């Protein structure tokens, strides 16, 4: 019998995902059964609170898939994607590393007992107080992409192990990042020279192809770009030992490009540009891949308006007790799966839904 573990969070903690009981479903119940039971329980208390349920087995399954298909690449889970404590605890047990983007995220991960060596501070524009915090807590590895960031790091954390983030082609991704983050290849020599002048240690290169990438070949080009940076560094006397291939993978079963296709392209590019005996450690910063299909938000339809007779295109409008300023705040970038009516609400006449 398949066993699932679900973490449920009630409405009051939706914003920070800060609490959540873990239930092991070893009685044959599915996640959907669990959600329906929760709804019934809330109804019996006359509560219409919305709540989130995480299927922790889905997180574990994605990790297994990662290990099988990308055996050379150690994942550093991108905490910003979803910092639910149960998810972070599961990932710690699975021995992933963690990509943190702020002091608060570093603190959260350190509180779980994660070693500072398993954290990359992967934000290229950090407040100086956050850099000092990282230094005080022995988090050494951090990214940069500008002269200004090098200046701040040399003042606050001169012993840091730096990773130069480069801008790569992200034109086939739903959420593009390279216009804001990453140095162009033309800037690499200057930045590495400045790091050497300031006695800073640059250990590697990172990139992010953009979230929800839809073209696997993008990774081939980005890894080839990273190889160029390693070669430029070598000419300057900087021997790099880390390649960070970022995130960008969807975690949905029905995504446009399957993870298998991405991993085939990545493995081939790594073997070509960074063969196994080259002494370079390969890491990544997947976020959505781990959690995108794990979470279900249960909401109540609290009102409906029949606009079907108001002319062509008219439809039934449903109002739910959560929205763009709450749990659905990421929906602009990542459209949600179509809603599923709960078992307990069967009997309503179904209408077409848009969102
Ligand atoms: C620096 C960095 N790493 C990793 C991620 C996670 O990306 P994804 O969810 O596409 O895997 C992001 C997302 O914004 C990011 O900015």
UniProtKB/TrEMBL annotation:
Q: Which Gene3D superfamilies has this protein been placed in?
A: Alanine racemase, Lyase, Ornithine Decarboxylase, Chain A, domain 1
Pfam family membership, one: Orn_Arg_deC_N
Where is the region Disordered?
A: 335-355
Q: Which GO terms describe its molecular function?
A: ornithine decarboxylase activity
Gene Ontology cellular component list: cytoplasm
InterPro entries from the xrefs?
A: Ala_racemase/Decarboxylase_C (IPR009006), De-COase2_N (IPR022644), Orn/DAP/Arg_de-COase (IPR000183), Orn_de-COase (IPR002433), PLP-binding_barrel (IPR029066)
**Keywords, comma-separated and alphabetical:** Lyase, Pyridoxal phosphate
Sorted alphabetically, which SUPFAM superfamilies does this protein's record hold? Alanine racemase C-terminal domain-like (SSF50621), PLP-binding barrel (SSF51419)
Domain named Orn/DAP/Arg decarboxylase 2 N-terminal: which ranges?
A: 57-291
An example GO biological process term is: putrescine biosynthetic process from arginine, via ornithine
CC cofactor: pyridoxal 5'-phosphate
User: Function, please?
Assistant: Catalyzes the first and rate-limiting step of polyamine biosynthesis that converts ornithine into putrescine, which is the precursor for the polyamines, spermidine and spermine. Polyamines are essential for cell proliferation and are implicated in cellular processes, ranging from DNA replication to apoptosis.
Family label: Belongs to the Orn/Lys/Arg decarboxylase class-II family.
Q: What is this protein called?
A: Orn/DAP/Arg decarboxylase 2 N-terminal domain-containing protein
């Amino acid at each position: 019998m398949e066993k699932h573990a679900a973490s449920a969070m009630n409405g009051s903690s939706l914003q920070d995902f800060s609490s959540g009981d873990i239930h092991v479903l070893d009685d044959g119940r599915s996640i959907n059964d669990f959600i329906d039971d929760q709804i019934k329980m809330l109804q019996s208390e006359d509560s219409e609170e919305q709540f989130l349920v995480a299927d922790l087995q889905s997180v574990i399954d994605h990790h297994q898939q990662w290990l099988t298909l990308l055996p050379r690449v150690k994942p550093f889970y991108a905490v910003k994607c979803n910092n639910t404590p149960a998810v972070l605890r599961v990932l710690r047990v699975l021995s992933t590393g963690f990509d943190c983007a702020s002091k608060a995220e570093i603190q959260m991960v350190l509180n779980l007992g994660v070693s500072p060596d398993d954290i990359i501070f992967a934000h290229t524009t950090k407040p100086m107080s956050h850099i000092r915090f990282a230094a005080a807590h022995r988090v050494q590895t951090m990214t940069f992409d500008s002269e200004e960031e090098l200046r701040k790091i040399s003042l606050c954390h001169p012993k840091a192990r730096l990773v130069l983030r480069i801008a790569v082609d992200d034109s086939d991704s739903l959420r593009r990042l390279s216009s804001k983050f990453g140095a162009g290849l033309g800037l690499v020599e200057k930045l590495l020279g400045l790091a050497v002048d300031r006695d800073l240690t640059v250990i590697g290169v990172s990139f992010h192809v953009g979230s929800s990438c839809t073209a696997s070949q993008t990774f081939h080009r980005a890894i080839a770009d990273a190889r160029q940076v390693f070669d430029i560094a070598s000419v300057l006397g900087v021997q790099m030992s880390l390649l960070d291939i970022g995130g960008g993978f969807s975690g949905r079963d029905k995504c446009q490009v399957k993870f298998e296709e991405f991993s085939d392209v990545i493995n081939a590019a790594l073997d070509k540009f960074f063969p196994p005996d080259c002494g370079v450690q390969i890491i990544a910063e997947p976020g959505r891949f781990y959690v995108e299909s794990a979470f279900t938000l249960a909401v109540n339809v609290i009102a409906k308006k029949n606009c079907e007779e108001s002319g062509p295109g008219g439809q039934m409008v449903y109002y739910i007790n959560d929205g763009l300023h709450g749990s659905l705040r990421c929906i602009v970038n990542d459209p949600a799966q179509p809603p599923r009516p709960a078992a307990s609400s069967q009997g309503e006449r179904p209408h077409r839904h848009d969102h």
